[in-house]
Amino acid sequence: AARRALSGFAARKLAADAVVVEQGKPAPGLFIVLEAALEVTALVGDERVALRTLGPGDVFGEMSLLDDDGATASVSARGPSTVLVLPRVAFAELVLAVPTLRARLELLAAQRRLSNEALLPDASSAATLL
To answer: 3, 11, 29, 103: least buried by Cβ within 10 Å?
Structure first.
C-alpha cells in the first residue's frame, strides 16, 4: 500500500507567484520542494505576514491534511519552481500504511504551530497554520 501511495507523487512546475496552497482552503496534497523557493504567508486582519521560506527538500501541506481542515496560511512560488505533490487521497493511504510517517509529520506540524504563533503575536493561540 505504501509503494502504491508513493507512486502517486507527481512533479509539478510552478510559475512565479503561483499560489500552491491558499489560506482558508484545504491543501490539495502533500508537497515537497524540489527546486527554487516558496514563501509561506498568513493574512492577519488586513496584513499579510511572512512566516518562512521553503527550499529544496522542505515539505508543506501536512498540517491541513492531518487536520482535514482549511489551511490558515498560503504558500506561493517566489519564482519558477518545481515541487512534488501527493494528492490528498494518496496521502491518506500513505499515512495509514506507514504510521511512523504520520507521527513524523504530526511532530513537524506541532513545531510549525509553535513557530507560527511566535511570528503572529496578534493571532489567537488556537491558530493552526498550513
So the answer is: 3
